[in-house]
Amino acid sequence: MSEPISPRQLALDWLDITVERFVANMRRLQIENTGHLLASFKKNVIGEAGADRLRIQLSYALYGKFVDMGVGRGHGAGIRKGDDGYDRLRNSRGQLRRLARKARPWYSKEVAHQTKRLSELMLDLYGQVLVAKTVDALPGETTISF
């Protein structure tokens, strides 16, 4: 029986694929204005040697969530009524002059899919480890039927 990969390596590979899919979604939806969001991904797998627990950390710029949900005011918090920038962005009733924002879902559906996939991969990995340890522990001939 081949040696299964370590949970840490599985988590690292999963993070690479997940970030790759996020970037592909952003490019498909044309969310690349400055490239800051694309470059903001940081990934890390935290766990002590021989520990049973791993913690996967994936971070990105906060405004990526607002793009995903299609929310936000569209201008900085420092612009107030009476400022020069206010009249440029708002009409006389205080409404934004531009079109309403639309959600560009680069994150929400993909993260749901990828976390489900990670759980399937981890179940498969620990199932292989369990079968390998069972076969090694039993003497003589072993037959496992499913």
Chain-wise SSE layout:
Layout: H1 7-28, H2 36-39, E1 42-46, E2 55-59, H3 63-69, H4 84-89, H5 108-137
Antiparallel strand pairs: 1-2
Helix pairs in contact: 1-5
Question: What would you say this structure looks like, in words?
Answer:
- The chain has about 150 residues and is mostly helical.
- The protein is built from 5 helices and 2 strands, in the order ααββααα.
- Strands 1-2 form a two-stranded antiparallel ribbon.
- Helix 1 runs antiparallel to helix 5 (about 110-135).
- It starts with 6 loop residues before the first helix and ends in a 9-residue tail after the last helix.
- The mean pLDDT is about 75.
Query: What is the CA-atom radius of gyration, in angstroms?
Result: 24 Å
Order of helices and strands: HHEEHHH
Helicity range of the residues? Answer: 40-55%
In the predicted model, the low-confidence regions spanning at least 5 consecutive residues are: none
- What share of residues are in beta strands? 5-15%
Based on secondary structure, the structural category is mainly alpha
Number of helices: 5
Q: End-to-end distance, in Å?
A: 17 Å
Mean pLDDT: 77
How are the strands of the biggest sheet laid out side by side?
1-2
- Largest sheet at a glance? 2 strands, antiparallel
The strand count comes to 2
| Assembly category | single chain
Shape: elongated
